[in-house]
Specification:
Layout: H1 2-22, H2 34-75, H3 91-97
């Protein structure tokens, strides 16, 4: 994580430095100027970043929908079930089953 972050920060710093150095007042006569090439690179980088942001947002939205659906299915059962009483114990069990109670 730290290595990747350091790499991306260094690459971004170098890109900004090259862009600043590429802005010159003397333009060559033929072909694209260095400023044009750097602006194309900047727009391409911005497009990639925007695409990554959109994919991340879609992934987060999908994950939140799945989590909400999972919570909804565990919170309320799909079909209601009958309430069952606990089994009688001791003298109450004898009364229910019809056995004599020995006191």
């Amino acid at each position: 994580m730290l290595t990747k972050r350091t790499f991306f920060l260094t690459a971004t710093g170098l890109l900004v430095g090259y862009m600043a150095a590429g802005q010159s007042t003397a333009a060559p006569a033929g072909g694209p100027t260095p400023t044009d090439i750097l602006s194309w690179l900047t727009w391409a980088t911005a497009a990639v970043v925007l695409l990554m942001l959109l994919i991340t947002a879609a992934s987060l939205a999908h994950a939140s929908r799945l989590r909400a659906a999972a919570e909804a299915t565990t919170a309320a059962p799909a079909t209601p079930t009958e309430a069952t009483a606990p089994a009688p114990v001791g003298a109450a069990a004898a009364v229910v089953t019809g056995e004599p109670v020995l006191v």
